[in-house]
Request: fold
Amino acid sequence: MKKKSTVLRRCVACKKLLDRQQLWRVIRDHKDGVVLNDGMGRSAYLCPNEACLEEAQRRKRLQKALRCQVPETVFQVLQKRLIPSIGLVAKAR
Reply:
């Protein structure tokens, strides 16, 4: 049996190299603009934590990686996703 290899991606904010399934994917789609998770196009990855989200927003890391403007609504959706993630980390301990 073949063992699946992990696919590593780098967070645009903290520059850590992680398994892509641990990161949020932000895509510049040729039809729909900037979307999350699903789509084809240029991608940027972000750690699902508040520090990386703030760093990416403050230093325009997603805009630079995607080479386009990222709407404020994308950051708002990612901010909302943080709240359930924090609860899951607390339960895991």
Q: What stands out?
A: The chain has a mean pLDDT of 88.
